[in-house]
Design brief:
homodimer, 410 residues, Aspartate Aminotransferase, domain 1, Aspartate Aminotransferase, domain 2, 2 domains, seven-stranded mixed β-sheet, 14% strand, globular, disordered C terminus
Amino acid sequence: MPASPIRRLAPHADEAKRRGVRVLHLNIGQPDLPTPREIADRLGEIRDRVLCYTPSTGTPEFLASVRAYYEKQQIPLGDAQVLATTGGSEALLFALMATCDPGDEVVVIEPFYTNYSAFAAMAGIRLVPVTSRGRDGFHLPPMHLWEAVVGERTRAVLICNPNNPTGTVYTQEELSEVAGFCRRHDLFLISDEVYREFAYDDRKPISALELEGMEDRVIVADSLSKRYNVCGIRLGMLITRNPAAAEAALRMAQGRLSAPGIAQQIALGAGDLDQAYFDEVVAEYRQRRDVLFEGLTAIPGVFLLQPEGAFYFIARLPVLDSDDFAAWLLSEFSFDGETVMVAPATGFYATPGLGRNEIRIAYVLETEALRRAIRILAEGLAAYRSARGLESIPLDEPSEKHRRAKVPGM
Amino acid sequence: MPASPIRRLAPHADEAKRRGVRVLHLNIGQPDLPTPREIADRLGEIRDRVLCYTPSTGTPEFLASVRAYYEKQQIPLGDAQVLATTGGSEALLFALMATCDPGDEVVVIEPFYTNYSAFAAMAGIRLVPVTSRGRDGFHLPPMHLWEAVVGERTRAVLICNPNNPTGTVYTQEELSEVAGFCRRHDLFLISDEVYREFAYDDRKPISALELEGMEDRVIVADSLSKRYNVCGIRLGMLITRNPAAAEAALRMAQGRLSAPGIAQQIALGAGDLDQAYFDEVVAEYRQRRDVLFEGLTAIPGVFLLQPEGAFYFIARLPVLDSDDFAAWLLSEFSFDGETVMVAPATGFYATPGLGRNEIRIAYVLETEALRRAIRILAEGLAAYRSARGLESIPLDEPSEKHRRAKVPGM
């Protein structure tokens, strides 16, 4: 099992707090927005005599609410095609285990959500990375790179759309290419779509469930966590129209008896939320993105293309070792009594050496705090380059040149 | 993945209900006793603005409450020795994955809790059974049978004490033998102790954590589900004093982010329960056991020794195929408009052919319903033997002869 790369920094953060330095956490995907009252208030309404096991598939009411949600997305689903899971995490674990035996391989686009490595280790499978590049806005790499890694033991492709950690939203054209690749090599497509609502500038994320000719190949991992700011209730869902994959996932679900029951009860409150709820949440994140993008790209040597979705992005910095920089920010630096905790990007790559001049930022603080974070990063970068003798590293490729450039399909 | 053997009968139960027959469920371990108000009422007191992720280890408050509970059992635990899990199920999965690689083997006493097979399949490991016998009250088989199955790939022993499905409580003498076996072959001991409170006739179950010289080898899977009638909240814990196993489990826990947060909050209410709560619950189960034991052993050809703990037992019946009998009870039989759903014991054995004349009964109904269930089983057995032409099978070994006999260490 790999250790969590983000959590390696935790002792440094504790140290900063002991020194009286306030730490702005841009390192974790815990949204700060409130859980809607429509959901949270239901906690007080639970009158069950026994908090008993729920069906392994999920309660009929919760499953119906999931189907209703997907129906609104123009994605009709049958009864046996939805399984309640303990967060999107369990949906991903079940998806990998349903499609692979130990020793099998799954193609994944790096950088990718760190915990894919944990699920892969638990399933005994090997993640085979294809690298996406910051200069392309982390859009999907060209097909010849995918073809180069596919082998006899390849069973599936795993994508995340909108993407954590890059904030990229894949286009119809890109997803069609992925679908063709899966059909060509007889692979499942596991699609992590937990950030579906979070897309900016009129982008509408396309679900893998909408891809033609892929009905039998797609497994979607979804979650209520980010959509409704209920990360702690641990409720997600696995969705597939492949009966064998659904059956395999169901057997695993039966093994662990049931997904959290209280969560399934209060989740029904999501049915009382209208589009205005999502509009407001998305507007807030878009504003944060704008603040960060403008602010960070104005720092010499910082590069990123405009993030398109989710609430993360990867930025290139004028450093040689972002693990060292992130630790330094916590243990050696502060500005006006504050510092910033960021996630070094190395943990999001499977290929050794990649991501050493990149960090991932999660924009889960309000804009005022984000403006302070930008200032801290600007001051911190200058001080760090001086402290580490990095002034000779050129601040090339200023991000202004690349803004909105080279992004396919946009 | 194996299909759940109990759930195979579900369509027959649905069919019975459609015919207007009331089904008494003795097949599943969902206690009917109420969740204590001390726990359930806390749902209405949650005022969190965000239902956010909790620490992967568990909340400090919940972990402290677990340590306090174990302290009362004279088992002191350190901070890093307790991990909150999503039910005992996840604790078992983590324990298997922390100790084994795919292809490794774990010695398990059959009959065993069906879902061990699911967790083993997910972990890619092989369960190697040693058979316990009804005539011995399902106490542990002699050591030479254990020695015969241990091999190069054996990594751990998995026991459940008090036992589901047999209701057996292992003695100090037996557990010492298991400890010696583990030390001799350098194995972990994974001990499922979710029924710890449920022991009758002044038995006090011994935790594997109390075994001397085993501090570094024991991993306990525990759960609040049965102890406090909160099966649906999905909250358990993994406990080990082995730092490497704790670290491996922690990494898996970090991968899935956190155990259910609301569950950890309301679980603190258990601290408000005194010994009277357990006394009352245990007295209720003991009475049910007495009713069932007296009633069933009076049926010709039914055999079991007096169950010692948990709220299950395995009974031998004068039939050749308990799967067929269980299905027949649901689809062909009723008595006064009712029938009984029992779990055929075949699903609790790994060795093919074993358990075909046994059923598992969970006593999760009140005594009045249990008395009716006994009558239904008595009438059903006679009718079934007649319908299937089994009258020639002798009703030998009446249980009265064996009652309280041959049980080691008692």
